[in-house]
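Lab notes, practical 5.
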Amino acid sequence: MIKKLLVASSLAACFVVAGCGKNKAVKAFEELADEVCACKDSACAMEAATKLQGKMTELMDEKGTQSDVEAIQAATKKMQGCMESLKK
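Output from the prediction step:
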């Protein structure tokens, strides 16, 4: 469930990003990754990850670059790693 949420969010953000500068989408994903990685249990991480769903409508008009897409993908990978470590 968590992995599907992150993948869907990441893909949506990739479509959102298409212009210039460090934008709100990149910042949101990086902040979310930090928040998820600060969690001590899966419930906390899931709660943090669901916050992104609410932000997606805000981020729909953001423009970015290919490097922004790569930054979002890196943040998503970081989140996934942190969530996986909480499962152990």
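Observations recorded by the TA: Residues 2-87 form one domain. The helical segments are 2-16, 24-38, 42-59, 66-87.
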